[in-house]
Amino acid sequence: KGSNEESAPSVSANSIKITDITQDGETLTFAITSQKSSSSAGVCVFRTYEDFDWLQQSLLSQEDVPGLLGVIFPPLPGKPLPSTSFTQAKALKQFGFLALGDEWKIYCKALELYLQQVAAHTTLSKSKALSSFFSSTESPGKHRGKKGIFKRLSHVMEEMRKEGHKDVDKFFQSERDSCTHLSVLFKVSTEKFLDTVLTKQKLAVACGHFSTSLHLVCNHDNPAAVTFSKICLKLSDIIEAVKVNFEKVSDNDVSSMGLALDLESRYQEAKKEMLFRRTCKLVELEAANRNSERAKPNKKAIMEGVQKATQKEFNLISSVAKKEIEQYHRARVSVLRDFLVSWCEKQLSTAQETSALFSQHLEACRGFVV
Amino acid sequence: MKMAASSERSPPPFPESEEQELEPDLEDEDSDEGADIFTGGMLSDVVMDPPLPTSASEPAKDIFSDAPADSFNDPLNKTSAEPEKTESTGLSKAQVVSLVDKAADDEDLFSDPLGESAAAPVTDTKSAPLLDLGEEPPKSDVTEKTASAAVKEDVSAEVHKASQNDVVSKPQKDIFEEPLKGTVKEPATDVFSEPTGGAAAVNKPARADLFGDDDEEDLFKEPLGAVTKKPQVPLFTEEPNDIFTEAKAGSKAPSDLFTEETFTAPSAAAAAKPSVNTGSKTNGLHSDEEDLFAEATVELSLDSPHNDKRKREAAKPSVPASTLSSSASTSKPQPKTLEELEEEENEDKFDLNISVTNPEKVGDGMNAYMAYKVSTQTTLSMFRSKQFVVRRRFSDFLGLYEKLSEKHAQNGYIVPPPPEKSILGMTKVKVGKEDPSSAEFVERRRAALERYLQRVVCHPSLLQDPDVREFLEKEELPRAVGTQALSGAGFLKMINKATDAVSKMTIKMNESDVWFEEKLQEVESEDQQLRKLHAMVDSLVIHRKELSMNTAMFAKSVAMLGSSEDNTALSRALSQLAEVEDRIEQLHQDQASNDFFIFAELLADYIRLLGAVRACFDQRMKAWQRWQDAQNMLQKKRETEAKLLWANKPDKLQQAKDEIVEWEAKVSQYERDFERVSATVRKEVIRYEKEKTRDFKKQIIRYLESLLQSQQQLIKYWEAFLPEAKAIA
């Protein structure tokens, strides 16, 4: 633990930016710039999704961090699939908001947030893997790290019944209940919000068609119909303005509220996983308790040893988890607040712009002599 | 060539048409609304007519040279022979225009049009005389050659002289000094009513055709509506009436006087015309004075488009000219009245305000029907009171349409179609399901019926129809029967049949007038475009509704998040957000119905109206077909006669000759019919286009207002939410 702190001066979380993205076939490469908190010199590295995955695995499989299982790991978005064979509908189903936006803009934003959260995390920021992720010229993902606890986790996943296991701690029991509940609610809200955004985009497209068709109505041959043509052109402009408004509004939605909801629902999921890991440890501990009670005298000492070790580990996990949860609750409120405020401000300014534009159009329309 | 055509054709139509077409009108409308001061004159006019044309040119010349004496002959020749003179009068006319403008400004007459389009009135009025200049000589030629027609008009003018002088002198008194009036009035009415009558016989229908072609009409109609009794109005409206009359006036009178005479002359002309019209139009829509002015306005507004058109059609002048001149006589009285009405309508829409409200289910089960309250507010004296309410059921509306289309469609009028019957929608209502879709159906139909009635009463000739009045006024209406044919698919089938027939006939018809060919094509492509637009608006509405629904669901899930959230500030903000989203949902919903009721319904109306437009083209084709058939028949009869002559069978020869005479009469009758229908169709299509432009403008403004309002609401909502979001700690 100590060595970690000395060897890796942590990266300043706020300085982490994904500045560019290039696509080469099926592979997306992200340009990531960052600054060490100790110096003002910027570093730029190029990372693929495999590198991100490697980082996440390394974080999950750190062996020298006590109570690691109690950490809420910042959630890494799923693997992007730039393939053309991957339809928009499928991408939306898998990535939700992250599939929206031009050129993976929203996805980059989500990755950026992930890195910032890792770098801001008290324990994870000290990881060697993170520091090499931000500085190594080589692509760290190429040397596949050890299979992390994910493997072990997936094994445990089979025992889903443990999810409903009664907790010994009231705090954790209520956290588990509310987390399960909230995680579902956030997922639903994200889906519903995504629906509204998609409908707005459809409306923008429909307005575009309408506006184009109105252009075609204009009759240039007939001088008597000039006024009517003018009116149609004006209407075409108005519908175009409506279309632009829809585009702006849906962009605002995606880049602030949509991202926030997506992040929050993934975080809820991460928290749930952490709680589940602790529950698994609890189940393990209870088994050890029973074993040591029932153990024959010759094995009693060993069993008690196991029980004590497990108890200690469990207590450590629980205390880390408690801190993590508190930390997370503080962080999420401020993150959600920021997103909500920025969303509201964006919508407000868009509405004001659009309203001004409509006023202009209205004046122009009233000026038509029929 | 044009002139020859018109002079040949003009004489016979007058007695015939006026007797045939005016008298029924008189009977019809007189019985409704009592006598008019001009009725007597009108009738005597008709009685006096027949002898004149029989000896067409002879007596004409007599009167022509006798009555007006030097004052008439001289200027007439001058104007036709000397372009310089014409020009100078044209210039002085410009002066008149400016004079009028000034006066108008003083009176604030122009405040409206000026506001609407900066310098429009001034420039337009000035361009009108300029256009006239070019067209002048031919016009006066026409007058000379259609002397007989002119003479006839003269007679009628003289018949009405007494009343005309009264009317004309009234405005004059206001503007000009007494002595001037005295000197001018006498010769003016005598002399100028004559040529104007002749010219009007030729020009008026032309204008009638082109009516609504120009912005000018708009410019003038407002001030007219504002102050009909102001002296400026007659001045203004008369001045461009006909330059050739002015030319005469200008050439023989001192410069001071000539302006005055200019006014007197056209007003006399105007007076001569309405005297015919008022005879037939006895609804008491206007005072006599207003009639005169409205009349004059119509002429004014039509002057320049007419000339425009002529210039454009310069290459093929004979066709339109003959069409115009002959349809002149036939369609003159009625369209004139209509134009006045239209003027009146345009001037002040509040003259007749119709609303359809309170849809109410009457009865139970499958015999149930919807009844609507039809409220009318009007200042028109053709109605018994200023405000009245009747209850009508849907089939009554359809019945009204049937009656109207039976009477008017064959004459080439665009009869606005009512909304179709909807068996599905009505069944839902009948079953009594109180679901939103049936409420929407009822509201949609109510609005459609209202627009339908408004379109009907906006149409000057339909408003005149006794059935319309009955529909609006009469307490109990006989049950409309046979409207089943109009229901849903049947209705569409009917329209489609009509359009099929049109397209089939178009192939056969060797179109003599490119205008109709082009217009029909325009109408057809417009139909397709509107259908496309309608489909797009439909999908827009569907998406809007979807958005509204999605927003509602999002609002609900945000509300649940808010109630499950532990952090109090966040929970509060989320609950507020849920409320904001709820309101936004309402906005989307409102916007969806705005999209629908403003655009989708507007487009649907116009798709239906286009069906009616096509139908009026169809009527024109039918008239043409009848004329062609008659011509073929005449040809056969002539061949028979030739055969009989050759075979030397004198006994049958007389019968054959009689038949030829009979068919010759039919051919000319049908030709006139065709030309009358053509003229009406032309006018109706132009009117339709104008109404369409006006309608679209109105609806777009309405739509924009709704968009703007919705954005402003949004601003309010977000502004209220922002502090809540910031308060999360």
TrEMBL record, chain A:
CDD domains, per the entry: PX_domain (cd06093)
GO molecular function terms attached to this record: phosphatidylinositol binding
Alphabetical GO biological process terms: protein transport
Residues in PX domain copies: 1-141
InterPro entries linked to this entry: AH/BAR_dom_sf (IPR027267), PX_dom (IPR001683), PX_dom_sf (IPR036871)
UniProt KW keywords: Protein transport, Transport
Similarity section: Belongs to the sorting nexin family.
Protein name: Sorting nexin-5-like
